[in-house]
Write a structure and sequence with these properties.
It is a single chain. The protein has 488 residues and is of the alpha+beta class. It folds into two domains: 237 residues, Rossmann fold (3-Layer(aba) Sandwich), CATH 3.40.50.300; 116 residues, Elongation Factor Tu (Ef-tu), domain 3 (Beta Barrel), CATH 2.40.30.330. It is built from six helices and 25 strands. Strands 13-12-11-14-10-15-16 form a seven-stranded mixed sheet, with helices on both faces. β23 and β24 form a beta hairpin. The longest helix is centred in the N-terminal third of the chain and has 23 residues. It binds adenosine-5'-triphosphate. Adenosine-5'-triphosphate (ATP) binds next to β7 and α2. Required for endonucleolytic cleavage during polyadenylation-dependent pre-mRNA 3'-end formation. Component of a pre-mRNA cleavage factor complex. Interacts directly with PCF11. It is found in: Nucleus.
């Protein structure tokens, strides 16, 4: 493909150009004239932006080089509705800040509270929840008021930002719940980093989104698999977010947007675990607005269950949202873990030079993980919960199973069936150094400092090889294994 294969699209206001890329295909888009944005992040004129890794997205005004498998212009978008929502949230921020500073609270519609927008986004599978979160956060950071809203993700099926290459925390492995303040518009270029890149080994050059997130590890794709653990981690994340807010009273007026798993949107009844988890989010993040993306029944249910506590708003689903099937999601997890370890560089279509990925130069996006051999005894590994136990028939006669869903169970790497080969492990922050402050199940409340993958087990020599994005020693550290695996 060369420049002469480029297509130029002229878009009317409030229309969007949508594309879906096949595996291995990249696309470069240059804004020639006017203004355009990708899910709320503005494009700079004359600069080619790259898209790859089966990205599916939408833009407004540009000049195109590449070969998407599907592309079209849509005149029906929900952007006006999302824009109105942003204006409402903006009024809430301004009024909350004025109230905090003791200034006169600007006149506004009486139904906009003078408190920060703390928003929970709910919706069924493939309704565009993540995209709505991204658009709302991007509009907030572009508002020119210096807002840095928090973006929280409690959908363990989806990775978020690329994980940190430093030891300061990760933000992206599937299976994680996380929150981070967003300071610059989040680009869209690849589903491997659906919300852009976090701080990496070259944080100085990754200006737009050097994010230091708080991460907890759930370890499974399905939020229903261990709802007690989900509940606990959501509440932990809330406590952490509150601590961030306590240290930055003005900063908190930017608010928080929380993305959720689709399993929160459908279930047997109002008293099921799903509603308990929604309730956990409302409590943990002090939610004042629930957005229901295009789902009438869920909207009614939320109005009935939580309408007295929070404002429930139904918003339209974009016709551009693509149905992602399970094989696509599996490939996505691979892309995400690969990008975590190695970074991700999208190769530009032939003829395109000096392109950027979401505004970052390509050389800054290459990472080199380290593969190290460690002793089994270097790392203490746990699984959380009963399903990791031996079957009841294997227990001694008379012994009853007493392991709860929340119990950390030590994993012995030398046991056959340890499940560690190719497993993704979350390495945890240290335990409280003060012995008096230690407690059972403390491990559940520790944040994640990074992820590693076990690439080889040598049981005879009691050694394992691990791939890690950092060179740091793992000796004395504690890790949790879930059900995610990855092979290069
Ligand atoms: N207007 C649009 N045009 C083209 N593609 C879009 C549009 N909106 C969303 N998409 C794409 O559709 C896919 C699904 O959207 P998104 O991830 O936001 O949905 P979701 O409801 O969060 O998904 P999940 O079922 O994983 O919870 C993504 O690849 C996204 O980039």
């Amino acid at each position: 493909m060369s420049e002469k294969n480029a297509k130029t699209w002229v878009l009317d206001p409030e229309t969007e150009y949508r594309f879906e890329l096949d595996p291995g295909v990249s696309l470069a888009i240059t804004l020639v004239r006017g203004r355009a944005e990708v899910f709320g992040a503005e494009l700079v004129q004359g600069k080619p932006y790259l898209f790859g890794s089966e990205c599916k997205a939408a833009i407004f005004t540009w000049h195109v080089t590449g070969q998407p498998s599907t592309e079209y212009v849509s005149e029906e978008t929900p952007m006006a509705a999302y824009g109105n929502l942003h204006i409402a949230f903006e009024q809430m921020r301004v009024r909350a800040l004025a109230k905090l500073r003791g200034s006169p609270v600007p006149e506004g519609r009486s139904d906009f509270a003078a408190e920060p927008p703390r928003v929970l986004v709910l919706g069924p599978e493939n309704s565009g929840k993540t995209t709505v979160c991204k658009i709302l956060v991007n509009y907030a950071v572009r508002a020119g008021q210096g807002w840095s809203p928090l973006l929280a993700n409690v959908d363990p099926n989806e990775a978020r930002l690329d994980l940190s290459k430093t030891d300061r925390g990760g933000w992206g492995a599937p299976g994680a719940l996380s929150a981070a303040a967003v300071h610059g518009p989040i680009p869209t270029c690849s589903p491997a980093n659906p919300l852009g890149s976090a701080a990496t080994s070259a944080p100085m050059t990754l200006a737009s989104n050097a994010i230091l997130p708080v991460v907890y590890w759930y370890g499974h794709a399905d939020a229903k698999r261990n709802h007690l653990l989900m509940d606990r981690l959501i509440r932990n994340l809330g406590v952490n977010v509150q601590e961030k807010f306590d240290h930055n009273a003005e900063g908190q007026t930017a608010g928080i947007i929380v993305d959720t798993p689709s399993s929160f949107a459908s279930g047997p009844g109002v008293n099921d675990h799903r509603q308990k988890l929604i309730r956990a989010c409302i409590d943990a993040f002090k939610i004042n607005t629930i957005l229901v993306v295009g789902h009438e029944k869920l909207n009614v249910e939320m109005q009935r269950s939580f309408g007295s506590l929070v404002t429930v708003v139904k918003i339209p689903k974009s016709g551009g949202v693509v149905d992602l099937d399970s094989s696509y999601r599996e490939r996505l997890h691979k892309y995400q873990l690969h990008a975590y370890m190695y970074g991700e560089v999208i190769h530009p279509p032939p003829g395109i030079k000096s392109a950027t990925q979401g505004g970052e130069t390509l050389t800054d996006l290459i990472l080199s993980p380290s593969s190290t051999v460690i002793n089994f005894s270097d790392l203490t590994i746990y699984r959380i919960g009963a399903e990791t136990m031996a079957p009841s028939s294997a227990l001694p006669v008379g012994a009853a199973r007493v392991v709860s869903e929340m119990q950390p169970v030590l994993v012995d790497p030398s046991q056959p069936g340890s499940g560690l080969l190719n497993a993704v492990l979350a390495v945890l922050a240290p335990f409280n150094p003060d012995e008096n402050e230690r407690y059972d199940e403390e491990i559940l409340d520790l944040t994640v400092v990074g992820f590693i993958v076990v690439t080889n087990l040598d049981v005879a020599h009691k050694k394992m090889t691990v791939l890690s994005p950092t060179q740091g020693s793992l000796a004395g550290k504690t890790a949790i294994v879930g059900s995610y695996e990855w092979q290069d």
